[in-house]
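As a point of orientation, let us examine one representative protein, giving the amino acid sequence and backbone structure tokens.
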Amino acid sequence: MMSKQTPRLRNGKSHSGWTPRFQFVYQYLCSLSTARKQDCTVRIYTHQDCGNVTMGTTSPDRGSQEYEEQHVHNVYEQIASHFSSTRYKPWPIVQRFLQELPPGSVGLDVGCGNGKYLIVNPNVFIVASDRSVNLVKIASQHCPHASVVADNLSLPHPSSSFDFAISIAVVHHLSSHPRRVQAIAAVLETLQTPPETEQNPSNFKGVGGKALIYVWALEQKASRRGWDEGDEQDVMVPWVMKTKSTQLGNENSETFHRYYHLYRQGELEHDVAEAGGRVVESGYEKDNWWAIAVRNK
């Protein structure tokens, strides 16, 4: 049975900006949820669970899936707690994007990690998802937002339903160009389409759904990594996790390697267009390329 309880903000009060459409989306999530704790939803989705819900289709590239399972998914499951402890400060462009949203907006955080962006704007509702069960468990602590375990290429959300979406430092973990485009398309598919008057990017005023996407840049000459134009774009990046021995007090370390595709200048905009979207704003921030995109009709 669908819940009719109005979601509450962190201060315990309901927001006057919640719309009837918000109630529909919230009840939709409640109908899918099987595990709940104080209005925070944690649900693991498989392809079979998604039924008739519109979503990105699974790539037939089995080799890429297995590669990502080994060099992305398994790694984040193992380093989740340590990784989360280093991820607490919102990036400025992402913070600005979220804070400028109208009160009562309903959106997605695709590849949410530990959910650090769920607390940026208390006047919006976010459905967060990640492929890592352990990271979603951490993200689920941010009530009243919903947190689900879902693959980026099989998002369990209705199409054309959300005001906004963010996907921060996620798409670059897909190991082939078709899969990266598919991941972007899956995000764009969830957005409301802008009305006819807003189809021209120069006239874009934030009407209709919009997505903010971040990827690591190839052009990082000034960073400690030193990558730049002409370097290999597909790389393995180490994550060193240090632990202390409870018996001897010694510090041990283990190194994990994560796959990244480093985006060159203009590549993200090209992928957005190929995915059926249109970039309305883009830029470079701290070794990352970012783009704000809307759906084409």
